[in-house]
Structure formats: structure tokens, C-alpha cells
Design a protein that fits this description.
By secondary structure, the protein is of the alpha+beta class. The protein is built from three helices and four strands. The protein has helices spanning 2-15, 37-46, 74-83; strands at residues 22-28, 51-57, 62-68, 89-90. A hairpin with a 4-residue loop joins strand 2 (51-57) and strand 3 (62-68).
Length: 95
């Protein structure tokens, strides 16, 4: 009986996925130069697996992105904007 409980606990620990957290990051996107640029940046960000929300502000030249940190990270987000022609960095330099 004791072995069954231990085995069940070990199996549950292995099968249970790590808890993911929703994170929000603000990216500086200085290359946006027209009113259509935010559309392209938002489309690129929302195509990244794990992104649940992307708000792009042309006037501030920034994007605020909410994502599941088990599926996405800052590197994937900045790679997506760069691949779309808009290199980005974390606003304030923190990652």
C-alpha cells in the first residue's frame, strides 16, 4: 500500500506539467515609421505561440505583449518583430 502511494505521487509529479505564468513585457519598437507599421508588428507578435494579447502604440513606438512563459519568451517575441522588419528590445533593458 505504501509503495502504491509513493508510485502514484511520483507518477503525478512526472505527468503534471509545470505551471506556466502569464507575463507581460513592453518592447521598444523604434523602427515604426507609419500608421500601418503597428498592424504588421501586432500580427507578427500574435502569431507567436503563447501570446494572448499584443497592443502596439505607434506614438510611443512600443508594444505591450502578454504571453504564457511556458510557450514563449522575450527572445521569441523580439525575433518575431525583427523577422517582420521591426527590430525590438525590452523597454528599459530588463529581461
Amino acid at each position: 500500500m505504501k509503495q502504491s502511494i509513493i508510485l502514484a505521487a511520483l507518477l503525478a509529479a512526472i505527468v503534471t506539467p509545470a505551471l506556466a505564468a502569464q507575463k507581460t513585457v513592453t518592447l521598444a519598437v523604434p523602427g515604426m515609421s507609419c500608421a500601418a507599421c503597428p498592424i504588421t508588428v501586432k500580427k507578427a507578435l500574435t502569431r507567436v505561440d503563447g501570446v494572448s494579447r499584443a497592443e502596439v502604440d505607434y506614438d510611443k513606438r512600443q508594444a505591450t505583449v502578454t504571453f504564457d512563459d511556458a510557450k514563449a519568451d522575450v527572445a521569441k517575441l523580439t525575433r518575431a518583430t525583427e523577422d517582420a522588419g521591426y527590430p525590438a528590445s525590452v523597454k528599459g533593458g530588463a529581461q
